[in-house]
Amino acid sequence: MLFTESAVKGTVMKNEAGIQEFKTVAWSAGPGCHGSCGQKIYVKDGKMIRIEGDENNPWSQGRSCPRVLALKQYMYHPDRITAPLKRVGGRGEGKFERISWDEAFDICEKKLRGIRDQFGAEAVVFVQGTGRDVGGPISFLAYSYGSPNWVQLGLSGQSCYTPRLSGMKATLGDFCVADCSQFLEKRYDDPEYKFPKVMMVWAQYPPATCPDGFYGHWIVDCMRKGGTQIIAIDPRHTWMTSRAKYHLQLRPGTDGALALGMLNVIINEELYDKEFVEKWTFGFDKLKERVQQYPPAKVAKITWVPENLIIEAARCYAKAKPAGLQWGLAVDMAPEATSVAQAITQLWCITGNVDVPGGNVFGKPSHGVTTYPYATEELVALYGQELVTKMNAKRIGADRYPLVKGFRGWAQPDDVIDQIDSGLPYPIKGAWIQTANILGGQAARMRFHYEALKKLDFIAVVDLFHNPTTMALADIVLPAATFAEKDGFRSWWAPLGVIQKTVQVGDCKSDYEINLELAKRLNPEVGKKFPTVKDLINSRLAVAGTNFDEMVAKGSWAMPADGPYRPYRRHERGLLRPDGKPGFNTPSGKVELWSQFYEGFGIDPLPFYLEPAQSPISTPELYQKYPLIMISGTRSPLFFHSEHRMIPWLREKMPEPLVDIHPDTAKQLGIHDGEWVYIENDMGKVRRKAKYSLTVHPKMINTMHGWWMPEEEGAEPNLFGVWKYQINQIIPGPQHSKSGFGGGQYKCTLVKLTKMRDGEV
After folding, report:
1. Cα–Cα distance between 142 and 138 in angstroms, integer?
2. In this structure, how many other beta carbons lie within 10 angstroms of the beta carbon of residue 79?
3. d(Cα 323, Cα 320) in Å, to the nearest integer?
4. Virtual CA dihedral for 672, 678, 679, 685, nearest 10 degrees?
5. What is residue 2's predicted lDDT score, i.e. its pLDDT?
6. Hey, what domains does the chain have and what are their CATH numbers?
7. Predicted pLDDT at 384
8. For 123-175, what is each residue's pLDDT tens digit?
9. pLDDT above 60 for 607
């Protein structure tokens, strides 16, 4: 197809048939995920007609996931909400009427002002889910309103990335990511890059996901192009483990013990990088003393991983130069996950794989641009120390958990729902819920969340489709835009990217459009500084010396130049510390194996292991009653959390919620392949279709979260079948972590399987 330059604003090219080609970045509703994949959107007569990967974007190099390729079905789905809705019946009745944006904003403004005037701004919680780009607009609205309670409500222990960020911050002073050449425009062909000889893939299945500023297929690229060998740490058998040199099939929740056991081998056998440790680390002797508590034989009994495999894998990783480590969400859900993350971080530190090609390199917001704040320092830079101090005084959980007060800006989710229920120490009266299907998605103790949230005086939900949360709770529903319908930006590591609007669907607005308008109404000073969304975006891009239109003209992305935002060996060049001296951004200026950051918060400065709250060891009587360890939350390229169940192309590939069960276990229970069963514990029971699978250990089962049925009745009591299928009904809480972060019990809950009686399906 031949294209010529177009004069249409924001359009890259246009052909003789009137088809416009837009280059943009996929991050927001649509795929829903964390990715930054370059996409080309083709538009004719104001409607998107197809989408395909942008081969010139260095991040994804022309690749697209199934969710992106199904975007047209998502955008133009007949059930999509395309205008503001007001509830006209009781909560849960499913009765809504269409209203204008002016009326919707008027209602939200009146309700939120009323709560703030009577109870204080802290009486409203601002709730986001994971994924998309909502962190920027929702924190902006929360702080403009004056509420400190920005929260991933339902996500027990904030058990998504935050514990890993904490472990890296405590050790290195900054955040790291496995290096797959993603910071280099020429990627694998750049002569500065070296493929990792070994990649340890810990608690993740990269081909199915693009998590936390990382594109999963990069690891496959390294295997294919560079001969990278894999050490896979996963309780399941997967495509990745089948191609691994070593597969350590650990018991869920025992990651901390395994990491400490590997540190024991590397230190005691003197396989660590002696030059790096001597010059650049602090507290090595204390770490050496601590890991003596975790000899491989002891760790093998805890983790169910054979002793010889622990030793061989540790040697393989330590001897490889360079070696990378890519990790996943299950680390965050381990007990005391901030300590688990600290131990795993120390593996790449003591082996000298810090900010070197093919190791683990520092990830900083590209060009210094903050999309949304990952740490307190970024909050201070955006909003000032005075506001952050004020927010900490009332932030839920800050008085109980020092990390909640001193690291990131989240309220503690388990404490938030408890406070909504109890009204103590102060009442919560309203919720702004954006990109978060709490009931159908992330909420452990889901029924408790349902009952507590019903007590609130006002709930506004921003989403694209009705779901169990909108039906059960919403007073107002505001229609959000997909990434094809909005302007935005992304700076999660690299490259710096912009999302450009290509079409308009109904009366939908972007999250930034919605939140900026409401922020201006609730805080007039906001409007003086940011009259439009473009003004807000440009204010964030200014530090990079560019603006939105310039970025669009460049093809919607830009790589950082050599300096603080681009690897390698920045600690040697004085590019990490505020004072410009060589070293790391820690109190000692070194990699802190004994963390002064944690010590200052009253947390053990050395890593340690804690047994899961439910396990064969900690609760043997419960284990007799419920003899299977349930791994929930399996990722799929078809669905993002609780999204996409209504999209035909995606749903036909997985029409029903499955539970993977080892054939030997199934036969012992008299369960047939394809039979509907209950997954049960003391909290209740949930329906699943049994699938015989050798991917799971005989003592475990594996199932996906986020299931509800858009085709079923949405009004109560059914709520799209959420009470039948939502696995988080039987996930206990609160979190298992004294730091307040991590330990959500999503990966190691004890359950049993029972057959359904005739007529129950």
Report:
1. 6
2. 11
3. 6
4. 180
5. 36
6. 85-158+366-558 (3.40.50.740), 176-362 (3.40.228.10), 620-755 (2.40.40.20)
7. 84
8. 999 999 876 789 999 999 999 999 999 999 999 999 999 999 999 999 999 99
9. yes
